[in-house]
Write a structure and sequence with these properties.
Elements lengths: L2 E5 L3 E2 L5 E8 L9 E7 L6 E6 L5 E3 L7 E6 L4 E6 L8 E8 L15 E5 L2
């Protein structure tokens, strides 16, 4: 069974860089036919696709975040990591990592992590 677990700080100060890691078991980020995705949901709002990484290392980012977002894979640890720089209060959200055959999706088509709350506050 595939499992994804998000980890990282729950509180980030404005202007700092948010860093979240997704640890995968039951599949390989290096060889999977799926994409590895980050999705977030701000309080009271809908889900937003942030970006994705494929097994080849190719990355895909939401244009609205393109200047601030990076996603990296660590095949030795079977993890992928999200970095979002220059955060503001608008980046407060529950962040989810997910696996999907689609690069861009906010639907629960496949396996998702439980989600991790990240609050941007001084």
């Amino acid at each position: 069974q595939v499992q994804l677990v998000e980890s990282g700080p729950g509180l980030v100060k404005p202007s700092q860089t948010l860093s979240l890691t997704c640890t995968v078991s039951g599949d390989s980020v290096a060889t999977s036919n799926y994409y590895w995705i980050w999705i977030r949901q701000p309080p009271g709002e809908g889900r937003e696709w942030m970006g994705a990484i494929g097994s080849s290392g190719n990355t895909y980012y939401n244009p609205s975040l393109k200047d601030r977002i990076s996603i990296y894979g660590d095949t030795s640890k079977n993890q992928f990591t999200l970095f979002l720089s220059s955060v503001t209060h608008e980046d407060t959200a529950v962040h989810y990592c997910a696996r999907d055959r689609l690069i861009v999706t906010t639907q629960r088509n496949d396996y998702w992590g439980a989600g991790i709350q990240v609050t941007v506050s001084s």
